[in-house]
Amino acid sequence: MKNYDVVIVGAGIIGLSIAWQLVRRSKLKIAVLEKGAGVGEGSTGASSAVCRCRYSLDELVYLARDGINAYRNWAAFTGLDEPRATFNNDGVLWMPGSDTQWAEAEHQRMQMLGIATEVLDDLDIKQRFPALNSCVLQPDFVTGEAHECQAGSKNFFETEGGYVDPVSAAQDLVEACRKNGVDIHFKTQVTRVEVNNIKLKSIKLNNSETLSMPLLVNAAGPWCKQLYQAAGLKLDWDLSPVRIQVLHRDRPQALQGHIPITVDMQGGIYFRTQNRGQQLLVGSVLEEDEREIVADPDNFRTETDQEFELLKFHALHHRLPQLPYRGTATGYCGLYTVNRADVHPIVGPTNITGFWVANGFSGHGFKLAPAIGSMLAQAITGDTLEFDTRVPMSFLGVDREPIKLESKSVLA
Ligand SMILES: Cc1cc2nc3c(=O)[nH]c(=O)nc-3n(C[C@H](O)[C@H](O)[C@H](O)COP(=O)(O)OP(=O)(O)OC[C@H]3O[C@@H](n4cnc5c(N)ncnc54)[C@H](O)[C@@H]3O)c2cc1C
Fold first, then answer.
1. Positive or negative, the Cα torsion across 12, 15, 20, 23?
2. CA-derived radius of gyration, the chain
């Protein structure tokens, strides 16, 4: 039987961030076990990987800020001379439409929290992002008819927001971890969890091997409940894999100038460019699009729905009026793991000694990952380092109360 100090189940962005944050401050013997053939087979591979700080709770703002700080300084954070991932600092523009008070209020709040933001009016938008229409009206989703656009918007811009290619970031963490002695095994599935007197004993793998360790971290993303069941762990939290749709459109020449990552709150969409600005990626920010629970995370419909395409492209055309109606459109689906109680994750020890969790990241997990790794690594080793967060793990602890929120969508 092989022994480790810490075993992490899942080589998504969360499991790898935990492993990296542990090994960069300790000599612990660490293994990461991943059932897939490589990184990115779970939520991480499908992620839009938008990195923005605006959340309704200050602690979340800090966690996002700390995670984004690691991505912005990726070579220094990972210790790699030539990491694959780069931070695309496109900025994140929030367009609240007819609510002209919101942007100023959020700007004031973010200033207090030390986040770089600006308020942009119609003229600013026209000068800086000429492809964007800053109309304050909501598109008509019932008839689909165009309206006469109305000026007067006040928008909120996060200057240091951006996105990262999620698979490149995960590959970088694999390289950094391996260089520092972490064992990372692909095609290796945890099939059983042995518990004795509510204490973790060992795990069994698909290759019949048995591993023993004092500490196991469940970072299995949408599969996390399978490990709870294997360990006989009952939690008060309901974490569900939920099908999430994302669309792609080629970006035509007609769309000139810089297009920031845009959160169109009235249109119910976010969009950003990718592939050096040549493509547009579009997703939803509506809670109603985060409700399709998937029974088996290994088997769900990965094609997008026609109805979803019609509504989201209608909203996109309103914001980008020069986007022709004709053009190549594709899409895919990935999985959020949604914590039904408050759409925020649970992190830390459970009532089985040695069985820890980092699960339920909804649409937040990519940006938060370096900070989540930091929380756990500080709790396990007691040591702090550069790039650490100061938000305590108890904020997301398994024994916390659900957080009270206005909305349970990805924008929470
Ligand atoms: C469409 C989409 C868009 C998103 N957009 C954003 C965004 O813009 N910004 C943002 O911050 N977040 C975003 N997210 C959320 C973010 O991507 C996730 O929260 C994050 O990737 C979760 O990472 P994870 O490591 O927990 O899970 P995963 O990436 O799913 O990793 C879990 C891994 O565990 C492995 N595994 C499971 N069970 C076992 C087992 N028994 N044994 C061994 N291995 C196992 C799986 O194969 C998987 O690779 C988005 C997610 C999706 C789906």
1. negative
2. 21
44 C-beta closer than 6 A to ligand 1: yes
The CATH superfamily assigned to 92-159+240-338 is D-Amino Acid Oxidase, subunit A, domain 2 (3.30.9.10)
Burial (0-12, 13-18, 19+ Cβ within 10 Å), 183: middle
> Helix (H, G, I), strand (E, B), or coil: what is residue 66?
helix
Q: Give me ligand 1 centre to Cα 46, in Å.
A: 8
- Residue closest to 391 by CA, chosen among 105, 57, 115: 57
- Cβ of 165 closer than 6 Å to ligand 1, yes or no, is no
- Summarised one tens digit per residue, pLDDT across range 256-292 is 999 999 999 999 999 999 988 899 999 999 999 999 9
DSSP 218-243: E--GGGHHHHHHHHT---S--EEEEE
Q: Is 182 in the pocket of ligand 1 (CB under 6 A)?
A: no
Chain length of the chain: 412
CA–CA separation, 250 vs 278, rounded Å? 6
- Let me know: does 318 contact 359? Beta carbons within 8 Å: no
- pTM here is 0.98
Mapping DSSP to helix (H, G, I), strand (E, B) and coil, where does residue 281 land?
strand
Cα-to-centroid distance, 42 and ligand 1 (Å): 5
In angstroms, the first-to-last Cα distance of the chain is 44
3-state helix, strand, coil in the chain (%, to 5): 30, 25, 45
Write the class of the CATH domain 2-85+165-238+341-396.
alpha beta
Hey, whose CA ends up nearest to atom 48 of ligand 1?
A: 42
DSSP symbol at 166: H
Contacts 24+ apart (CB under 8 A), 127-130: 128/257, 128/258, 129/93, 129/257, 129/258, 129/259, 129/260, 130/256, 130/257
Lookup result for tokens 């990805």: 410
- Indicate which atom in ligand 1 lies nearest the CA of residue 227: 41
Tell me which residue of 92, 90, 139 sits closest to 120, measured CA to CA. 92
Q: Per residue in 29-57, pLDDT tens? A: 999 999 999 999 999 999 999 999 999 99
Q: Domain extents for the chain?
A: 2-85+165-238+341-396, 92-159+240-338
Nearest to 238 by CA among 150, 66, 330, 359: 359
